[in-house]
Design the sequence.
């Protein structure tokens, strides 16, 4: 972009703000402004890198609150660092904009930078280009060499543990989809029903504490069944989920049981951590200064596949499902929001 709204001006105007300055970025030798950033790794650490792209109409609604888009673009990436047990070192932001919309940019940068500041993640590089609205964030982090948490490593007999509660983002998406279908105005960023959908949090502290404790970790971005499936596939084992103890987001108290189950098992974007904990490893993360709810929701098994059982131990009939960007035609519809769809799972009693 050239002229007064040139790439440099946009980045400087919206991302060189006081909020950005509050981020310490201790390892940053050179940030925004040169050809590339320079980051120092602490001794004995490995670089961890992850990228994620959000496209308007596919990952967020055309009237999605811009501050939430900024927050979520960074939060989803930080969640991947959390799942690796890594600490964030910096982020790079690539913005594709159909036009220069100053109100959108101001809100977007506020959402992005507020989380960057809270999580102490300096923005070390940025790029803007013209095209259909899309936001791509790359996060860089570090982890002590050899201690990164991976999807592979779970063993039969390990406890299956999840942080927080599930299904809240899917519930919010369902409400937003219905609200839009009813044509009742623009999205409200502060709607309680959309708290988890709009303002997800990455479990960075828990991830760090799981180093040398958990055997395998993944973040729940595509849905419990889908992500547990990834973890089991990488680990070469199966798992049993005890449905009655799965922690449901309080929002789901308003939903019919079948919908609540579909949201908790198949809904994505909750960004909780799911991990394999050896039977002799303490669950008491509070002892390590981390205050996060943890629930044992089942066990890893020798037998491949995932079974969901009721209170009597009887298997429930749930279709294995979760979000896959290329799985169905749904993802290609311009108005579709394929992530976190509670309707992905057919759940029956
Ligand atoms: Mg992930």
Sequence:
């Amino acid at each position: 972009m050239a002229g007064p709204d040139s790439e440099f001006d946009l980045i400087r105007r919206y991302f060189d703000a006081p909020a950005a300055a509050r981020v310490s970025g201790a390892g940053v030798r050179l940030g925004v402004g040169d050809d590339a950033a320079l980051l120092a790794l602490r001794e004995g650490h490995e670089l961890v890198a992850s990228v994620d792209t959000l496209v308007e109409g596919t990952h967020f609604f055309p009237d999605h609150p811009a501050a939430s888009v900024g927050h979520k673009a960074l939060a989803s990436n930080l969640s991947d660092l959390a799942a690796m047990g890594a600490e964030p070192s910096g982020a790079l932001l690539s913005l594709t904009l159909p036009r220069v919309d100053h109100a959108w940019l101001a809100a977007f940068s506020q959402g992005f930078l507020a989380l960057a500041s809270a999580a102490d993640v300096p923005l070390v590089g940025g790029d803007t280009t013209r095209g259909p609205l899309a936001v791509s964030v790359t996060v860089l982090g570090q982890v002590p060499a050899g201690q990164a948490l991976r999807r592979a490593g779970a063993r039969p007999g390990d406890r299956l543990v999840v942080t927080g509660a599930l299904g809240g983002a899917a519930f919010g998406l369902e409400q937003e989809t219905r609200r839009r279908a009813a044509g009742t105005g623009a999205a409200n960023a502060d709607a309680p029903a959309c708290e988890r959908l709009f303002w997800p949090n990455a479990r960075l502290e828990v991830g760090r504490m799981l180093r040398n404790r958990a055997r395998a970790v993944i973040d729940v971005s595509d849905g419990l069944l889908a992500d547990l499936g990834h973890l089991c596939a990488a680990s070469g084992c199966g798992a049993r989920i005890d449905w009655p103890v799965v922690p449901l987001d309080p929002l789901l108290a308003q939903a019919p049981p079948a919908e609540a189950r579909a949201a908790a098992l198949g809904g994505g974007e909750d960004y909780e951590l799911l991990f394999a904990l050896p039977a002799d490893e303490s669950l008491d993360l509070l002892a390590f200064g981390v205050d996060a709810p943890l629930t044992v929701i089942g066990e890893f098994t020798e037998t491949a596949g995932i079974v969901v059982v009721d209170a009597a131990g009887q298997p429930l009939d749930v279709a294995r499902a979760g979000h896959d960007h290329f799985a169905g035609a749904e993802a290609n519809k311009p108005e579709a929001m394929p992530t976190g769809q509670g309707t992905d799972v057919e759940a029956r009693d």
Observations:
- The pocket of magnesium ion is lined by residues 80, 83, 219, 221 (CB under 6 Å).
- The two ends are 56 Å apart (CA to CA).
- Residues 66-83 form the longest helix (18 residues).
